[in-house]
């Protein structure tokens, strides 16, 4: 039994270590300094990871002056428009043709004068995050919209800590997933132990020096003639032991003088 538990624990620790190593890979995020687009046209803002790696299981967040609401959010390969900036509603698209290579192009349809400014590509895994900046210049616009550098990007950890009162972020979702996986692992471990115990692997072996005790139950009957007891029968039964395999029966007669 001890060897089985040791093997199960060893396999679990190996899988957990491999998962931690794969998630802790460091990366950098880069882009071109600026992109120009004509008023009313479509534009693509570049963003990529160095070295190349699969971004399907990461959060890709394009933002402007604030961390939330965002310009576009792709979470684990799926687009999320729940907290998108109203001015970009139904106008953004994350191109996923090369997402497995760590390339995330943001396409903005029919750019306006208000779309000009700095855009930040924020990429986050469960163990690491990176960001880059690209400036969009919309030509033909009457004025250039000036964006202030978002404070959240200067100190992303402090920004995330201020969002505890807001709906859960991707980091909260990751924590919940890890807690659920750990709970399922513990429950599975307990179930395996109970199953092995039920099959007899965990039953203690009786010592050769111990002998089972006999818990005997006795029943008696008597015979009488004219109100006088003339005979009796006593029968004792109990669990079978090494030195007793049959019930004990006693018969007798009573003499009246």
From TrEMBL:
<keyword id="KW-1133">Transmembrane helix</keyword>
<dbReference type="InterPro" id="IPR003599">
    <property type="entry name" value="Ig_sub"/>
</dbReference>
<dbReference type="GO" id="GO:1903037">
    <property type="term" value="P:regulation of leukocyte cell-cell adhesion"/>
</dbReference>
<dbReference type="GO" id="GO:0050863">
    <property type="term" value="P:regulation of T cell activation"/>
</dbReference>
<dbReference type="InterPro" id="IPR013106">
    <property type="entry name" value="Ig_V-set"/>
</dbReference>
<feature type="signal peptide">
    <location>
        <begin position="1"/>
        <end position="24"/>
    </location>
</feature>
<dbReference type="InterPro" id="IPR007110">
    <property type="entry name" value="Ig-like_dom"/>
</dbReference>
<feature type="transmembrane region" description="Helical">
    <location>
        <begin position="176"/>
        <end position="196"/>
    </location>
</feature>
<keyword id="KW-0732">Signal</keyword>
<dbReference type="Pfam" id="PF07686">
    <property type="entry name" value="V-set"/>
</dbReference>
<feature type="domain" description="Ig-like">
    <location>
        <begin position="19"/>
        <end position="139"/>
    </location>
</feature>
<dbReference type="InterPro" id="IPR036179">
    <property type="entry name" value="Ig-like_dom_sf"/>
</dbReference>
<dbReference type="GO" id="GO:0050852">
    <property type="term" value="P:T cell receptor signaling pathway"/>
</dbReference>
<keyword id="KW-0325">Glycoprotein</keyword>
<dbReference type="InterPro" id="IPR050504">
    <property type="entry name" value="IgSF_BTN/MOG"/>
</dbReference>
<keyword id="KW-0472">Membrane</keyword>
<dbReference type="GO" id="GO:0005102">
    <property type="term" value="F:signaling receptor binding"/>
</dbReference>
<keyword id="KW-0812">Transmembrane</keyword>
<dbReference type="InterPro" id="IPR013783">
    <property type="entry name" value="Ig-like_fold"/>
</dbReference>
<dbReference type="GO" id="GO:0001817">
    <property type="term" value="P:regulation of cytokine production"/>
</dbReference>
<protein>
    <submittedName>
        <fullName>Selection and upkeep of intraepithelial T-cells protein 6</fullName>
    </submittedName>
</protein>
<keyword id="KW-1015">Disulfide bond</keyword>
<dbReference type="GO" id="GO:0009897">
    <property type="term" value="C:external side of plasma membrane"/>
</dbReference>
<keyword id="KW-0393">Immunoglobulin domain</keyword>
């Amino acid at each position: 039994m001890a060897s089985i538990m040791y093997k199960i624990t060893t396999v679990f620790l190996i899988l957990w270590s491999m998962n931690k190593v794969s998630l802790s890979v460091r990366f950098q995020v880069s882009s071109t300094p600026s992109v120009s687009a004509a008023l009313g046209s479509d534009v693509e803002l570049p963003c990529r990871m160095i070295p190349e790696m699969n971004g399907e299981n990461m959060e890709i967040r394009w933002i402007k002056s604030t961390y939330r609401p965002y310009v576009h959010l792709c979470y684990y390969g799926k687009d999320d428009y729940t907290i998108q900036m109203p001015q970009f509603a139904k106008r953004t698209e994350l191109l996923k043709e090369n997402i497995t290579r760590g390339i995330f192009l943001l396409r903005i349809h029919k750019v306006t004068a208000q779309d000009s400014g700095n855009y930040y590509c924020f990429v986050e895994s469960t163990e690491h995050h990176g960001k880059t900046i690209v400036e969009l210049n919309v030509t033909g616009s009457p004025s250039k919209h000036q964006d202030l550098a978002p404070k959240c990007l200067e100190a992303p950890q402090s920004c995330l800590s201020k969002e505890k009162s807001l709906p859960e972020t991707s980091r909260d979702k990751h924590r919940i997933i890890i807690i659920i996986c750990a709970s399922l692992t513990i429950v599975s471990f307990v179930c395996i132990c109970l199953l092995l115990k039920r099959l007899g692997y965990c039953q203690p072996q009786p010592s050769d020096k111990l002998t089972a005790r006999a818990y005997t139950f006795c029943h008696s009957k008597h015979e009488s003639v004219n109100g006088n007891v003339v005979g009796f029968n006593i029968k004792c039964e109990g669990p079978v032991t090494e030195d007793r395999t049959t019930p004990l029966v006693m018969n007798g007669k009573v003499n009246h003088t």
